[in-house]
Design brief:
Elements (H helix, E strand, L loop, with lengths): L2 E3 L2 E15 L5 E2 L6 E2 L4 E7 L3 E5 H5 L16 E3 L4 E4 L10 E3 L4 E6 L5 E5 L3 E6 L4 E6 L4 E12 L2 E3 L3 E7 L20 E4 L6 H10 L3 E7 L1 H8 L16 E8 L6 H8 L5 E5 L12 E5 L16 E3 L3 E4 L8 E6 L5 E2 L5 E2 L1 E6 L4 E5 L3 E5 L1
Parallel strand pairs: 2-29, 16-17, 17-18, 18-19
Antiparallel strand pairs: 1-22, 2-14, 3-5, 4-13, 5-12, 6-11, 7-10, 8-9, 10-11, 13-14, 14-21, 15-19, 16-20, 20-21, 23-24, 23-29, 24-27, 25-26, 27-28
Length: 374
């Protein structure tokens, strides 16, 4: 049977998920290989150097830079408190002394006798990373972090904003076609991950933030509202660092788009379970996808018995169109013609025949579709 390779979003009811939890710089690993961890377990920690504050002591005291070492009270490496005296002149007959005080708490790092500048450093910034998902530590990355393995339900989205959050999954819409509206939100949603349907508006997002919702997983969002919601143009950066008080994962794309029934039904079946959500997305290259990870017990078994080749698309494979004129529409592959076909642009490309959910059939370039891996 013919098949093709194409990048795709993964939707798996039960799979093995591995997450690398790595510190930004060398630190201390707090767990061992084989150890069971919860999503909140701190697995590694380190300290980032504090911010540097420059202080021109020579200018403050009105002395030549070379005279300053003789009147310094603090030496390189000494701890300093805010407003503590760093140096003081001898004055005249013990009177009329001038002093210079530290503007920060931290460490006196150094003094330059040529420029008169002292380098003061604020206290180190503690950094801890947690396991993100419940599972088992399967690898220790020296003093940099660990790899956590979890048996979980795994759903990738097409776009997201906001970083890693966790919360109980709740379903507040009846169907994947229903919009998640503000009237569906109340105080019971606080701290939860909400599964929506086809759409969420920026106004609803703001109410969710006010209530304290951790994350929303929904089919679509208005791309025109994105800039207004964020306060800036997203461009081609990596998302996930937004500080908006909520994480948003879109499973289908921009606009009012019905969530894939398989995705909706799968997540709905996990209602009440702890979900780890990350909205980080690599926009240009597509190497990073937003995700929902829900660790499951051994009592939950996969409903899929097929062993599909990763990334392989063949007859019957579920796909999503990712470019106009069929952007966001879901369907299945009917045929994979081997011959190149000429587009209106006169370019020769490989195509596939697709049947959409409403029964409509079309021929589209293979580059215009994305495999939904199940």
């Amino acid at each position: 049977m013919a098949f093709a390779y194409t990048p795709g979003l993964r939707v798996a009811d039960v799979t093995i998920v591995r997450k690398e939890r790595r510190l930004p710089l060398t630190g201390e690993t707090l767990v061992e290989k084989g150890q069971e961890v919860t999503a909140e377990s701190v697995v590694a920690r380190t300290e980032l150097p504090g911010n540097v504050k420059m202080l021109n002591i020579a200018n403050v005291l009105g002395l030549p830079p070379s005279d300053i070492p003789s009147i310094l009270i603090k030496s390189p490496g000494d701890a300093i408190a805010e407003d503590e005296v760093l140096g003081q002149t001898k004055g005249l007959w013990g009177l009329f002394k001038n002093s210079v005080r530290s503007p920060i708490e931290g460490t006196f790092e150094s003094y330059n006798e040529i420029t008169g500048q002292a380098v003061l450093r604020e206290p180190p910034i503690p950094v801890e990373i947690d396991a993100y998902v419940k599972g088992t530590v399967v690898e220790v990355l020296g003093n940099e972090g660990v790899v956590v393995e979890s048996r979980a339900t795994f759903v990738q989205g097409i776009f997201g904003i906001g970083g890693e959050v966790r919360g109980e999954l709740d379903v507040i819409v009846e169907s994947p076609e229903q919009e998640l509206t503000a009237d569906l939100l109340d105080d019971t949603c606080k701290g939860k991950v909400l599964l929506g349907g086809s759409f969420v508006s920026s106004a609803t997002l703001r109410k969710a933030i006010d209530i304290g919702v951790k994350a929303i997983v929904v089919g679509g969002f208005d791309d025109k509202d994105l800039k207004e919601f964020l306060g800036y143009d997203l461009g081609v950066a990596i998302t996930g660092h937004e500080k908006k008080g909520i994480t948003l994962v879109l499973t289908e794309g921009f606009g009012r788009m019905t969530m894939a029934h398989g995705t909706f039904d799968l997540l709905k079946a996990r209602k009440g379970m702890l979900a780890s959500v990350n909205g980080a997305t690599q926009i240009r290259a597509g190497v990073m996808r937003p995700e929902v990870v829900i660790p499951v017990g051994e009592d939950i078994v996969s409903s899929s018995t097929e062993d599909k080749q990763a990334g392989a698309m063949d007859i019957g494979s579920p796909i999503r169109c990712i470019r106009a004129p069929y952007f966001g529409r879901l369907g299945k592959v009917l045929a994979l013609p081997a011959e190149l076909q000429v587009l209106d642009s006169e370019a020769k490309v490989r195509v596939l025949d697709v049947e959409f959910e409403d029964g409509e059939k079309a021929t589209v370039p293979r580059a215009n579709v994305e495999l939904i891996e199940e």
